[in-house]
């Protein structure tokens, strides 16, 4: 059944808003305190104790506004209130039917919003007026959706920079309002695999397509920088968009605030099954940053290329990485996401907290890219850890997809520290058969 998107309708929200738009950080913090106290169905228990005066929100808001638009605060808040009211007046659907994990068919697998509609939803989210329609389709610890309260109440550098990214989104939106960008279509698309993993394995082992490694480039720069990439891999949590906003700064959480339109997908998607991914197409990047985790800092508006990309939300295995089941699972995830892309910007997907080995995950993505027929720009994040050796071997031996997959599986029958050496040896064997 359809589920409501907004906590309050226009008239209900109007009763909570001041007569005049907020003109300062103090005014807006006070308004947020009032709205937070009035939440009838909190999407997330964001604060254990927050005074109704909004004082918990003030430090973060004040510093973020100073970084983004110190001279246009009243104009920014007036625009945010106008966009929020426009969405509540019917510019945005007031209810949605979330996707059931892994079940293809109904509701539609593709949902489209204009950039202007995204702006209306996110303006309401800043006013704590968006519910979590897919709440029960997520893990309990990932429930919350488009509720920014916990992040707004963080007084340290990281949450302040995350809020600055969101405010930069709204500030740039003021400049873009009234242009053709209002009509840019942001498409949230769920892709579910046909058949089972054994069917997918059969497809791989029957594919004689050559792996065109001249279409793959390793680099040490950030994943945002390849100007020719039309798609960007989100190192996703299984719960789409992590399911909620926190004060953290993983790769996914950074992408959430630099490309806020991506988060519209949280209205529809909960936890992804092992055979599905979610692609959010034609998302604009609004903010630039430096650092990662505790060193993350907002540094201004995004002024480079590409401005608009598809974001590929594909979660990787968390354990048993070298088993055939998990290798097939992750290659299938990457293949589903890569299909239809011209050039994918990716990196050490499935590593770090996920526990994968960089060279192993790189080789898996090479199989997926070869099946999908796309180019790859792979960021090593400054340390190749065997990815360069894997690429050199594939470039010199010219395997097809079957042979590359065979080498991955044979090399996986060892300790992870031996993967690269075993992979090169197995690739030599597979290409000579």
Structure explained in plain terms:
The protein is α/β, with parallel strands linked by helices and about 425 residues long. It has 2 domains: about 5-185, no CATH class; about 185-430, Leucine Aminopeptidase, subunit E, domain 1. The chain contains 14 helices and 12 strands. It has helices spanning about 10-15, 25-40, 60-70, 75-90, 115-125, 150, 155-175, 195-205, 250-260, 325-340, 360-370, 385-395, 400-410, 420-430, and strands at about 5, 95, 110-115, 185-190, 215-220, 230-235, 275-285, 285-290, 295-300, 310-315, 345, 375-380. The chain has an 8-stranded mixed sheet, sandwiched between helices. Strands 1-2 form a two-stranded antiparallel ribbon. β11 (about 345), α11 and β12 form a beta-alpha-beta unit. The chain is elongated. The termini are far apart. This is PARG catalytic Macro domain-containing protein. GO terms for molecular function: poly(ADP-ribose) glycohydrolase activity. It comes from Pyrodinium bahamense.
């Amino acid at each position: 059944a359809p589920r409501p998107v907004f906590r309050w309708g226009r008239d209900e929200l109007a009763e909570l808003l001041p007569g005049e738009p907020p003109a300062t950080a103090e005014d807006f913090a006070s308004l947020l305190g009032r709205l937070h106290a009035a939440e009838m169905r909190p999407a997330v228990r964001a604060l254990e104790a927050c005074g109704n005066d909004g004082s918990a929100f003030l430090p973060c808001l004040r510093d973020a506004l100073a970084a983004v638009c110190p001279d246009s605060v009243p104009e920014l808040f007036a625009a945010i209130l106008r966009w929020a009211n426009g969405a509540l007046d019917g510019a945005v659907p007031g209810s949605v039917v979330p996707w059931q994990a892994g079940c293809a068919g109904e509701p539609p697998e593709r949902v489209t919003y204009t950039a202007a509609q995204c702006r209306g939803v996110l303006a309401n989210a800043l006013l704590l007026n968006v519910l979590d329609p897919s709440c029960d389709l997520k893990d309990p610890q990932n429930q919350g959706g488009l509720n920014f309260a916990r992040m707004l109440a963080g007084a340290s550098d990281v949450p302040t920079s995350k809020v600055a990214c969101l405010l930069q989104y709204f500030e740039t939106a003021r400049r873009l309002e009234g242009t053709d960008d209002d009509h840019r279509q942001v498409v949230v698309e769920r892709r579910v695999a046909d058949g089972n993993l054994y069917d997918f394995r059969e497809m791989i082992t029957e594919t004689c397509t050559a792996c065109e490694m001249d279409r793959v480039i390793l680099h040490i720069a950030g994943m945002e920088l390849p100007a020719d990439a039309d798609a960007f891999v989100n190192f996703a949590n299984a719960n789409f968009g992590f399911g909620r906003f926190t004060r953290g700064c993983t790769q996914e959480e950074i992408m959430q605030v630099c490309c806020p339109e991506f988060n519209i997908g949280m209205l529809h998607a909960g936890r992804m099954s092992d055979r599905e991914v979610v692609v959010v197409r034609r998302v604009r990047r609004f903010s630039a940053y430096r650092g990662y985790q505790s060193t993350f800092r907002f540094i201004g508006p995004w002024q480079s290329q590409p401005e608009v990309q598809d974001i590929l939300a594909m979660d990787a295995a968390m354990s048993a990485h070298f088993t055939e089941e998990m290798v097939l699972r992750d290659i299938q995830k990457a293949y589903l996401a890569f299909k239809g892309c011209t050039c994918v910007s990716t990196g050490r997907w499935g590593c770090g907290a996920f526990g994968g080995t960089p060279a192993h995950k790189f080789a898996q993505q090479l199989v997926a890219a070869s099946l999908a027929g796309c180019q790859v720009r792979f960021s090593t994040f400054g340390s190749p850890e065997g990815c360069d050796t894997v690429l050199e071997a594939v470039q010199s031996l010219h395997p097809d997809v079957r042979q590359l997959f065979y080498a991955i599986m044979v090399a996986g029958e060892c300790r992870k520290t031996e993967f690269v050496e075993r992979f090169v040896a197995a690739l030599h064997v597979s290409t000579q058969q």
